[in-house]
Amino acid sequence: MRHRESGFTLIEITIAVAITATVLMTIYGIFSAVSSAKQRVEAESAGYHQARVLFDRMGREIRGAYLKSANPSTLFTGEKNDSGQPVLTLSTTASTPLGGTGGIVVVRYELRPDPDSKNQDNALYRSEYPIFFPEDSRLQSYKLASGIRDMRLRYYSDGNWQEEWQQGLPQMVELSLTIRMNDKDVPFVSAFEIPMKGGQK
After folding, report:
1. In this structure, is the dihedral angle defined by the CA atoms of residues 49, 98, 104 and 173, taken in order, positive or negative?
2. Which of 18, 92, 148, 167 could form a disulfide with 61 if both were Cys (CB 3.0 to 4.6 A apart)?
3. Looking at residues 131-157, what average pLDDT do you find?
4. Domain boundary assignment for the chain
């Protein structure tokens, strides 16, 4: 008698391999989609966090603006650099440890092209020094934030908005930022009122 040998045919093996490959491809697709969504959420979260930190910091320093006509070291100016990007320089009571001695400091913000960006984005640079010791304590500017597509500053006084500011304290400063998030440009806008008490005289 002949004994029939058990086993899989070539067609059965081919079908099993095809089913296994389909299942693995589906699982890979799910994991890839979840990973992409996670990276997108993390990037957007980092962008929103950066915007919040910038608005909090600049808002605190703008609200703490300090200007005395009798002291030429105090100032508040909003202008454009050679590239047409905004530059904000102000003396403020909202000092940081970078100022060295605390008290009143001069802070300068400037938007410049970011040399490290592959997308031709801009970076916001900042410098700070104590108002009473500018010669010994002036600091080089450092990159505060990157991935900035655009930044606009406007100054409000007596019912008018101005793109630049040179004299006295404005009543309000409007800050507009556009930050790149996942190849999308997301705009942010806020305005900061400058209290006159203890400031301009």
Report:
1. negative
2. 92
3. 81
4. 46-193
